[in-house]
Amino acid sequence: AASRRGDFDAMLAAYGGAFCDGLPIGGAVEFERWMRAERLRLERLLLDQAAGVIPARLAAGESEAALHVARELDRLFPDRSEVVVQLFDALVSTGNRMEAIERLSAHGARLASQEMSLPPPLAERIARARRAAADPAHVPAGPAMALATVGQQLV
Question: In the predicted model, what is the mean pLDDT of residues 15-39?
Fold first, then answer.
């Protein structure tokens, strides 16, 4: 209902996590298939809406509201690169550059450890963060060095 109304905040509040996560279904193959499809549909619905909401809130100067949404999505989907990119943008817009770089670096390192390819938006953010890290006025040397190391491994 909230998605039909276009009420993203209500959608986010209603989403309690993966649909039927942990529900034991013994041998009900067709039900399991439906449950997986429904879980993916609900996740995609929320993430697709967030892809428009966060940038819109940032553009409207509602950085704290965008950051709240991005943090909640990161809690729900910590391994999704698209969420990390949105969190990075919201953190930077609220002046939390160090936290943004640390979260991005941790995600990049996780991807590298699993030999996963780096999504282009994430690679772009890492490159931007590395350029900012090269300017000592923007970022202290310690995390900048860590980011540079991760970035060199990934980009």
Answer: 70
